[in-house]
Amino acid sequence: MDEKSSSETRGNPIRCRAAVNRKPGEPLVIEEVMVAPPMPHEVRIRIICTSLCHSDITFWKLKDFPGIFPRILGHEAIGVVESVGEDVDEVSEGDTVIPTFMPDCGDCVDCRSKKSNLCSKLPFKVSPWMPRHETSRFTDLKGEVLYHFLFVSSFSEYTVVDVAHVTKIDPSIPPNRACLLSCGVSTGVGAAWRTADVEKGSTVVIFGLGSIGLAVAEGARLCGATKIIGVDLNPDKFETGKKFGVTDFVNSGNCGDKSVSQVINEMTDGGADYCFECVGMASLVHEAYACCRKGWGKTIVLGVDKPGAKLSLSSFEVLHSGKSLMGSLFGGLKAKSDIPILLKKYLDKELQLDEFVTHEVRFDDINKAFDLLIEGNCLRCVIWMDKQVSS
Q1: Are residues 208 and 80 in the same domain?
Q2: Do 242 and 147 share a domain, yes or no?
Q3: Are 244 and 128 within one domain?
Q4: What percent of the chain clears pLDDT 90, i.e. is strictly above it?
Q5: Alpha-carbon distance 275 to 288, whole Å?
Q6: Is residue 127 in some structural domain?
Q7: Alcohol dehydrogenase-like C-terminal domain: which residues (predicted)?
Q8: How many domains in the chain?
Q9: Which residues contact 261 (CB under 8 A, 6 or more apart)?
Q10: What is the pLDDT of residues 166-182, one digit of tens each?
Q11: pLDDT at residue 43 above 80?
């Protein structure tokens, strides 16, 4: 749709197009929807472009709660503020912003601390509603409620996001690069940079060389790691991984009578300094922990496992090995302060973003983006809301 002027739309519902997930696993339906004006502490955003993340696919297929339908998915994006609700003063109409699923309220003890990015005022949860008011801003043309996704719902030409989930950025940065820092690349780079605090000269192992794992490699490279071992079933991932600093590769399906951790312990003379699990499998967390160096090694979990998955670690090993095991949501980043740092690193040609974008499609072809990611043919597919592109 054509860009609307704020003077025409401010305070009124906007009718626009969205890709609606009506039933689990079925193609998204492009249809007209109504987007309500922002309530207090909220902003309404015109989406410029969005990218597809594996989490979108996970919830697209999920039949049971927290899967819920009809829903507007999407959570990696960039847009322009169309209007703001009451009590919003950090962004204004016309600002370019990145929405994120993790809040950064700036007020609570966690957001004020350097030790955590887990906001206690607006704790993260997988909710179908807005975070403060627990209602939806979306309805279809029949008046039926359309549910939100990860507080962003970027598969819509307009969306409403809480101001705690919005980061103002430099509008000169290419939107098809900046949008990647809304979730995936930030999560991986941040896990190496902020959560693990990878040291120069260290050894890193990454289980799973999808977009998140490659972003971890990029973060570890930026931190100065000298040995970055990628673990994956697909040997083709090694060639891709080299672009992001991966120096060695272990095919987890081709280790003979040894476990992956045994192979890595031999390669690293006793274990890696940092191990990252980027797949979402308890068995791989165990393998990562097993090949993490005793005394100071850190194992960081980024992968999202199936609901109810459990870890079973030996109490003896935990006590005697001196290793650390930790989770990393959004890479431990504080969006409002850390995303601008990463964007500057991109402008200074330190951080690679271009290499993550393998495909770009029009909004009308959003289901093609799903096919590409499911088939393993792309890292990130950027979806332009109002632009003709060739994929």
Answers
A1: no
A2: no
A3: no
A4: 92
A5: 6
A6: yes
A7: 212-343
A8: 2
A9: 287, 288, 290, 291
A10: 999 999 999 999 999 99
A11: yes
Domain of 300: which CATH number? 3.40.50.720
- Considering the entire predicted model, what is its pTM? 0.94
Place of tokens 């983006």: 369
Is residue 148 located within the same domain as residue 254? Answer: no
Output the 3-class SS for 344-362.
HHHHCCCCCCHHHEEEEEE
CA torsion, ordered 141, 144, 148, 152, to nearest 10 deg: 20
User: Sorting pLDDT into bands at 50, 70 and 90, what band is 1?
Assistant: very low
Q: Give the Cα-Cα-Cα angle 270, 332, 248 (nearest 5 degrees).
A: 35
Are residue 123 and residue 30 in the same domain, yes or no? yes
pLDDT of residue 307: 77
Q: Token pair of 325, please?
A: 């095991």
Per the prediction, the chain carries an average pLDDT of 95
In this structure, what DSSP letter does residue 324 have? Answer: E
Same domain for 133 and 30: yes
Question: Which residue, among 260, 215, 276, 275, has the nearest Cα to 241 in the 3D structure?
Answer: 215
Residue 64 lies in a domain: yes
Q: Are residues 326 and 189 in the same domain?
A: yes
* pLDDT score, position 390: 56
Helix (H/G/I), strand (E/B), else coil: 332: helix
Q: 269 CB contacts (<8 Å, ≥6 apart)? A: none
Per-residue pLDDT at 387: 73
Name beta bridge partners: 117: none
pLDDT in tens, 52-61: 998 999 999 9
323 — pLDDT class (breaks 50, 70, 90): very high
User: In terms of residue numbers, what domain contains 202?
Assistant: 185-332
Q: Is residue 2 helix, strand or coil?
A: coil
State the average pLDDT over residues 100-115: 96
pLDDT at site 308: 84
First to last CA, the chain: 21
Q: Which has the closest alpha carbon to 44: 95, 96, 83? A: 83
Residues 166 and 195 in one domain: no
